[in-house]
Amino acid sequence: MIIALASTKMNLMTLLWGWKKTLQGEKSKKMLFFVSFLNTQTLCLFLASD
């Protein structure tokens, strides 16, 4: 449960970093969608294990 929470936090940080890069004009939307997808999966796993 703690691992899931930690990786969710890490994914959120990566998501914010990717979003910042996108705002800076870099084409990282594909990565952004991938990270948000991973983040959703992790969150679902976290809720399921609770």
TrEMBL record:
This is Uncharacterized protein. It comes from Acinetobacter septicus.
